């Protein structure tokens, strides 16, 4: 929102929220009725193209969003090295409003202008007129309109909304108040409607011009430099006919320079070109991939989790993954396709996120596999090979710590990472499974004064460490699975075995465990508190019981560039396993935390509090 919102700031359908696409329902229903009554033969090229063109624009924009976020995570050719936060993501969620607006414009033009129904697929003369009109009137009028928008009166009421984003993303390009979009529509109508009224317009002429606008808008706001130097060497006048991402980025950091739409010649003509434009362009092209201090190695979970990655759909990734979206059923087939492509062609981990905490940098790498694949015995060697490849890559690049997230540290897969340090004993990168801090978080979540807890059949390292620590503190741990009970009892000091009890009847109010199934939850008494020891949340089937989060903590404000949620966790909350890797690097600990080895529980907890991490619950 602008600092002092003026008239026509909000979109007319803003009140409709997620149902705003119903605005296009009359057009869709009209199309269905027309096909049903008159058949496909009655449809002309212009009418047939409208809906597919809108869909292709959304796909085009999403490709730019994913590409930009991927390269910004790698820091390759990055222009503005600052962070993006949730506030910007929320502000830019409405990027599709302009596509809805354009859809309505298309249908109104079709209904009101008879010539549109007679448009051929292509006319070369009409395309030439469109190019000339863009280079002339459109670029000239936009330049002066843009300068007017930077006058304090219009800037405070309208354009400041766009400039709230210093670090731009492709979708920043279309984040403007409704009134601005109305003016832009009138501007861009000059090259599209003029050839139509002259009788030389074409369907492809309009579609390609809009595609050009989208492409240049996205490129100018992508925040990484992608225009190679050879293009300007091969054709020097091109610097006046095409801007670069770094050229327009300066407009967002300096505000009073580089006003041009896509062709900078008016900035040269009126002496408003930023003098550092060429220098920033050269500098951005030289920026190479960053070597982080820490890598967190995770993987996809469900099919929909592909969209929840930072390089996926921004509005989905900025909320917990268990927050449903109404259009998920529409993109389900794409999720299946992406899964197959990842399975067949996913040969290495890829970067999805980059965070910073003061001078300390961290990246998240993702193994291109899903939860269900980790459960396939015949996939284990393949998955371990992908993990090994990521570890060796991190080691070669000089990464200090690599933390194993989710099932990448599964006992059945690689014995909590022990397989890797056994096979590669000379690793310089430290592998961390995070079990020490995860155990500490579980222990701190248990209410003070608790005398007994129930441990539901759990075999994980964290569950066992939690049970052993509770017994050592004099808290009774009750189990009802004999095999697990005998194994855990053998690991307890002789004087503490009295606190481990086998019983099918004694059910206390506190339950802990990796996977407490539906049947176990149903037999729990009213008011039960369930505390998971796993990285995966429990399925909540009881409304009369309390479910705590998976082991996690709130992150400090000094951690920047956080604008996505980690799986099902709330905003600015991070899993204990991931935090443990950060602490390992911050504290400079030189040991691995894998296999049966675990960091001292109190030591990791103290370090977490020292560095500003805050518990979600207090015991």
UniProtKB/TrEMBL annotation:
Subcellular location: Endoplasmic reticulum membrane
Signal peptide boundaries: none
Residue ranges of every copy of the Fatty acid hydroxylase domain listed in the record: 132-272
Annotated organism of origin: Urochloa decumbens
Keywords: Endoplasmic reticulum, Lyase, Membrane, NADP, Transmembrane, Transmembrane helix
Pfam families recorded: CER1-like_C, FA_hydroxylase
Alphabetical GO biological process terms: response to stress
InterPro entries: CER1-like_C (IPR021940), Fatty_acid_hydroxylase (IPR006694), Sterol_Desaturase_Related (IPR050307)
Annotated Very-long-chain aldehyde decarbonylase CER1-like C-terminal domain residues: 453-615
Family: Belongs to the sterol desaturase family.
Membrane spanning residue stretches: 182-211, 329-352
Reactions the enzyme catalyzes: a long-chain fatty aldehyde + 2 NADPH + O2 + H(+) = a long-chain alkane + formate + 2 NADP(+) + H2O
EC code: 4.1.99.5
Gene Ontology MF annotations: aldehyde oxygenase (deformylating) activity
Annotated Gene Ontology cellular component terms: endoplasmic reticulum membrane
Main subcellular location of this protein, as a coarse class: endoplasmic reticulum
Topology in the lipid bilayer: Multi-pass membrane protein
Listed name of the protein: aldehyde oxygenase (deformylating)
């Amino acid at each position: 929102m602008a600092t002092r919102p003026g008239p026509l700031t909000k979109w007319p359908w803003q009140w409709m929220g997620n149902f705003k696409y119903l605005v296009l329902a009359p057009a869709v229903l009209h199309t269905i009725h027309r096909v049903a009554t008159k058949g496909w033969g009655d449809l002309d090229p212009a009418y047939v193209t409208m809906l597919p063109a809108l869909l292709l624009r959304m796909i085009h924009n999403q490709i730019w969003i994913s590409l930009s976020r991927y390269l910004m995570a790698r820091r390759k050719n990055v222009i503005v090295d600052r962070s993006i936060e949730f506030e910007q993501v929320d502000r830019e969620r409405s990027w599709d409003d302009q596509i809805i607006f354009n859809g309505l414009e298309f249908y109104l033009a079709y209904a009101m202008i008879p010539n549109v129904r007679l448009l051929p697929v292509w006319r070369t003369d009409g395309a030439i007129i469109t190019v000339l009109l863009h280079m002339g009137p459109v670029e000239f009028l936009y330049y002066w309109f843009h300068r007017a928008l930077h006058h304090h009166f219009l800037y405070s009421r309208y354009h400041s909304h766009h400039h709230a984003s210093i670090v731009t993303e492709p979708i920043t390009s279309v984040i403007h108040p409704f009134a601005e979009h109305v003016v832009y529509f009138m501007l861009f109508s000059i090259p599209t409607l003029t050839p139509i009224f002259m009788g030389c317009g074409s369907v492809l002429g309009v579609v390609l011009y809009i595609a050009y606008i989208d492409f240049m808008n996205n490129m100018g706001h992508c925040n990484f430099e992608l225009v190679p130097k050879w293009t300007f060497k091969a054709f020097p006048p091109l610097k006046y006919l095409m801007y670069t991402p770094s050229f327009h980025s300066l407009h967002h950091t300096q505000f009073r320079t580089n006003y041009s739409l896509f062709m900078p010649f008016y900035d040269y003509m009126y002496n408003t070109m930023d003098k550092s434009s060429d220098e920033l362009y050269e500098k951005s092209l030289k920026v190479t991939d960053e070597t982080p201090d820490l890598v967190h190695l995770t993987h996809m979970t469900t099919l929909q989790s592909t969209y929840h990655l930072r390089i996926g759909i921004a509005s989905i990734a900025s909320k917990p993954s268990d927050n449903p979206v109404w259009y998920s059923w529409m993109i389900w087939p794409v999720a299946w396709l992406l899964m197959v492509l990842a399975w067949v062609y996913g040969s290495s981990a890829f970067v999805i996120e980059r965070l910073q905490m003061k001078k300390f940098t961290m990246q998240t790498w993702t193994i291109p596999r899903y939860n269900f694949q980790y459960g396939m015995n015949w996939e284990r060697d393949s998955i371990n090979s992908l993990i090994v490849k990521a570890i060796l890559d991190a080691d070669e690049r000089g990464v200090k710590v690599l933390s194993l997230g989710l099932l990448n540290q599964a006992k059945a897969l690689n014995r909590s990472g022990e397989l890797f340090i056994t096979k590669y004993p000379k690793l310089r990168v430290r592998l961390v499974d995070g079990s020490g801090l995860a155990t500490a978080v579980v222990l701190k979540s248990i209410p003070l004064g608790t005398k007994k807890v129930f441990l539901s059949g759990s075999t994980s390292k964290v569950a066992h460490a939690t049970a052993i620590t509770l017994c050592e503190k004099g808290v009774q741990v009750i189990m009802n699975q004999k095999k697990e009970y005998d194994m855990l009892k053998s690991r307890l000091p002789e004087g503490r075995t009295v606190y481990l009890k086998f019983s099918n009847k004694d059910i206390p109010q506190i339950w802990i465990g990796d996977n407490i199934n539906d049947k176990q939850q149903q037999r729990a008494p009213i008011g039960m508190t369930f505390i998971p020891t796993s990285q995966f949340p429990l399925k909540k089937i009881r409304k009369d019981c309390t479910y705590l989060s998976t082991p996690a903590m709130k992150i400090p404000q000094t951690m920047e560039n956080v604008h996505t949620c980690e799986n099902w966790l709330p905003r600015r909350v991070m899993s204990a396993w991931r935090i443990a890797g950060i602490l390992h690097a911050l504290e400079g600990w030189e040991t691995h935390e894998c296999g049966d080895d675990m960091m001292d529980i109190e030591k990791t907890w103290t370090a977490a509090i020292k560095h500003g991490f805050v518990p979600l619950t207090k015991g």
